[in-house]
Amino acid sequence: MSCSNCSSTINGLLKGCDNDGDCISGNCGKLTVFDWLANMTLPADQEKFDIAEVRFKNGRKIFYKNTKKLPLCIGDVIAVETSPGHDIGVISLTGELVKVQMRKKNIAIDSKEILQIYRKATQKDIDNWVSAREKEPEIQKKSRLIISRLGLKMKLSDIEFQGDGNKATFYYTADERVDFRQLIRELAGTFSIRVEMKQVGLRQEASRLGGIGSCGRELCCSTWLTDFRSVSTSAARYQQLSLNPLKLAGQCGKLKCCLNYELDSYLDALKIFPDTKITLQTEKGRAFFQKMDIFKGWIWYAYEENPIQWHQLTVDQTNEIISLNKQNKKGRSLEDYALDQNLDKEEILGSIDIVGQNSLTRFDTQRRRKKRRNKKPRNRNRNPQNKSK
User: Fold this and answer.
1) Partners of 212 in the beta sheet?
2) Helix (H/G/I), strand (E/B), else coil: 206
3) Long-range contacts, stretch 216-220, CB < 8 angstroms, 24+ apart
4) Which terminal residue of the chain has fewer beta carbons within 10 Å of its beta carbon, N or C?
5) How far apart, in whole angstroms, are the C-alpha atoms of residue 349 and residue 376?
6) Summary mean pLDDT of the chain
7) What pLDDT score was predicted for residue 362?
8) Closest CA relative to residue 22, chosen from 178, 136, 147, 106
């Protein structure tokens, strides 16, 4: 399900949403949840859940009670209760799945903080809402000038107007506590609106604004990621990544959330690896750890006397040397283990390369043969009488 602006062209290319994330179908917004229970009927003695999830600007979602039993569907524009006045939002989810979302956000069903839905938005409500949203970019520019003039150490990231246009929420980030009492007076007097200042973290700011990550896809925090778990540098160390802040940091300036995605797989693979602090005692001398390839099971060691030259070992070979060292015995030289490993590779390659699969010129020889075969019939078909003429 999608709106006409999100459909494809005749050539099959996507047009893209022209509503900037406010698609009327509800499927083009941020953090959209697919209602897979929409086509299922409830039991006869069970009533439909009377709380709906409403989406506002930049993926902000709040739950509201449908006390008037309005027939609501995903994508309906509604007017909801706020203090003071009313706000305009879009229905993003209804039915039984709303219970799951409320449980996920630790919101009780009988909470008194859940406000009610007034009505479906009229055309006048929508016009006032659109006109208020159009003022946001210009007011944001003027507000930043006021902040710089007052010398406040804060960054104004976004402005969100209420649906009736009487109130605006200013989202900002700051490293220290900011005294913005004078700022509120100037903003309220300049723009003739009620002002609410709301501080957000750097990850929440990136989630609201969105963007494209270094992977070429939209940011996870603005599309599907709802909980922001702490990311530490140990996650990068376990994955053998270079501790380069330019590569490990996201657009929010913090460590990328995707460092936690494959961390469990790396931790499981590292269980068979020995401790990197252990030195190997061999007949040729002491060897220190240099590098490892987790999924291929390779470890590189170098002698204390010659740290430039690295020797590749497998996990089993390394554990064998460590077990000998525990028995006060020295293992063979690293060159011998590397030689055994090369012999094993040759045996494996010999068993695989039966029909010359490893030959890089096997296709070239076939082409040459075809050319020679094509030339021979030409020589045979030549008529010697044409030469005498």
Assistant:
1) 218
2) helix
3) 219/250, 219/251, 220/257, 220/258
4) C
5) 38
6) 81
7) 56
8) 136
- The tokens for 156 are 């104004």
User: Over the stretch 136-195, which tens digit does the pLDDT of each residue have?
Assistant: 999 999 999 999 999 999 999 999 999 998 999 999 999 888 888 999 999 999 999 999
Domains along the chain? 17-121 (no CATH), 131-205 (3.30.300.20), 273-349 (no CATH)
What does pTM read for this prediction? 0.68
Distance between CA atoms of residues 157 and 329, nearest Å: 64
Q: What is the dihedral of CA 258, 260, 265, 268, to 10 degrees?
A: 160
Calpha distance 242→219 (Å, rounded):
22
Q: Which of 9-13, 99-103, 115-119, 237-241 has the lowest mean pLDDT?
A: 9-13
C-beta of residue 54 within 8 angstroms of C-beta of residue 90: yes
CB 222 within 8 A of CB 207: yes
Alpha helix stretches (DSSP H) within the chain: 97-104, 123-134, 136-150, 181-191, 202-209, 220-223, 233-238, 245-248, 263-269, 315-326, 334-352, 362-380, 384-388
Determine the length of the chain: 389
Of 226, 222, 205, 207, the closest CA to residue 106 belongs to 226
* Cα(15)–Cα(100) distance, integer angstroms: 33
